[in-house]
Amino acid sequence: MKLTSLMAAVMAGALLAGCASDSANVYSKNEMRRAATARSGVVQNVREVKMEDSTGIGGVAGGVLGGVVASQNIGGGTGQIVSGVLGAIAGGLIGNQIEKSTTAKKALEITVKLDNGSRLVVVQEADIAFSVGQRVDVLDDGRTSRVVPYMGGNGAY
To answer: Which pTM was predicted?
Structure first.
């Protein structure tokens, strides 16, 4: 049972470690002190989408946990092997679903028509409300883009 507890702790830690932010309000340390270009435009469309950040760790940890628990508690000899395999398959499927449900977040697909006439689409966490016709800035540092409300060029967001 100590192994079962250890695997459950590893699975929980792995799921929590994958909880990175895709918010326009949150910057990673790697994004600090990196210049970004701000392009202004108007929101043309906002669509709610679901963001998943599945790493596969839930399925692997669930499979190991299910296999160990089933093989220790069901049958003997060949039956123990079969129950271990079936437990691993069931545990993997359940672990995968648990990971998907704990890492899924609401997101927005935001279509912006820039002042230069070009259009672009950015998907980001749904923590800032946007509406069609709203004036926005698109911040792009060459690696990441984010949409933020336009503040009239006064530098405050």
So the answer is: 0.55
